[in-house]
Design brief:
8 strands, 2 domains, alpha+beta, about 35% strand, 1 helix, about 160 residues, Immunoglobulin-like, 4-stranded antiparallel beta sheet
């Protein structure tokens, strides 16, 4: 009789422990699955996003660099003004901020062909206004969803 009571109590304790463990593990698995799905979606967006710098040119007396960048991926890139532009020479590195109606030390953009969004095959004209001297330059553009491209050019 004593053994059956002990066995019954151990069985009840085992069931309670299993339920407690299940109640702790299942919500954690749900959170992990949700985090994994979010990370997977973001990675898929990055894979589907790609840009290509078609042409870059500078104007020494005008202190203007113009860069044409095409969306060659399948995702819409937005917001364009959250892109990062870095301009390098053999001796300097300059990160230019976006300013609408930029006048100096910044960049602005316009969507080519009357487009309203930077969708697949749409080209964006970036206008960088900064001090330009004759020499070699590299422009690096990184979009908000992590696609990046670089182009060497000379002024």
């Amino acid at each position: 009789m004593e053994k059956s009571i002990t066995t019954a109590l151990l069985l009840i304790a085992s069931v309670i422990a299993a339920l407690a463990l299940t109640n702790a593990v299942i919500p954690a698995m749900g959170k992990s699955a949700s985090a994994l799905a979010t990370a997977n979606s973001q990675t898929a967006d990055r894979i589907k996003t790609d840009i290509e710098i078609i042409h870059a040119t500078g104007d020494d007396p005008g202190d203007v660099i113009t860069v044409w960048v095409k969306n060659v991926g399948s995702k819409v890139i937005k917001p364009v003004d959250s892109s990062h532009i870095i301009l390098t020479t053999p001796t300097t590195v300059l990160s230019l901020p976006y300013v609408s109606g930029c006048s100096s030390g910044c960049w602005d953009y316009s969507l080519e062909g009357g487009a309203s969004e930077w969708t697949q095959s749409v080209t964006v004209k970036f206008t960088l206004k900064t001090s330009v001297t004759t020499g070699l330059y590299t422009v690096i553009l990184s979009s908000p969803n992590a696609a990046s491209a670089s182009k060497d050019f000379s002024v």
